[in-house]
Amino acid sequence: MAETMAIDMNVLCICDFQGDIFRAYFDQDYDMEAFTRWYLNLDPNRPDWSTVETLPRRSNDAGYDADTAEWIGFSYSYLELRTGKRGDELLRLAPFAWMLKAYAKLSCVVEERAVEILMGMLTTRGALKSS
Fold first, then answer.
1. What is the CB-side half-sphere exposure of residue 92 using CA atoms within 13 A?
2. Which pLDDT belongs to residue 130?
3. Of the candidates 131, 78, 127, 67, which has an alpha carbon nearest to the alpha carbon of residue 98?
4. What is the pLDDT of residue 7?
5. For position 1, what pLDDT does the model report?
6. How far apart (Å, rounded) are the C-alpha atoms in residues 53 and 115?
7. Rounded to whole angstroms, what are the CA distances from 68 to 4, 9, 108?
8. Are residues 119 and 102 in contact, defined by beta-carbon separation less than 8 angstroms?
9. What is the mean predicted confidence (pLDDT) over 95-99?
10. pLDDT at 3 over 50
11. For labelling alongside 48, which of 13, 39, 55, 86 has CA 20 to 30 A away?
């Protein structure tokens, strides 16, 4: 199982900010699977936000809500900071559909603990090396 790490408030603010970004794009009716793929593949040194307008819009029966989008955004950010993996790598290890299933099971767990559980699940699947 992954070792628990104390996270300071600055790191949590970064994760919260990414969660807020995901919620905002959900609120603008973006398809969150497409948005997540686009966002996690952005070059962090030279992000090109102009291409976001080309992303598809969400259908009303998408199967997730704003809280789900925010949780997924927060969790990807936290996983990125905890594992040192880039967003595109995390997307391969934990695709959007997998994160949706994880949200269904972990949404009632404190976010920091939920990410610890996600890391354990990814380690069990062989996606992350055990520490």
1. 8
2. 57
3. 127
4. 61
5. 38
6. 30
7. 24, 22, 11
8. no
9. 94
10. no
11. 13
Q: Is residue 36 a contact partner of residue 76, using CB atoms and an 8 Å limit?
A: yes
pLDDT in tens, 28-46: 999 999 999 999 999 888 8
Contact predicate 80/128, CB 8 Å:
no
| Alpha carbon separation from 6 to 75, 82, 97 (Å, rounded) | 16, 10, 28
> What does the radius of gyration of the chain's CA atoms come to, in whole angstroms?
14
The percentage of the chain sitting over the pLDDT mark of 70, rounded to a whole number, equals 93
Whole-angstrom distance, CA of residue 79 vs CA of residue 110: 15
Other Cβ atoms within 10 Å of 6 Cβ, number: 6
Q: Which two tokens stand for residue 66?
A: 């704003």
> What is the per-residue pLDDT for 45?
83
- pTM for the whole structure: 0.86
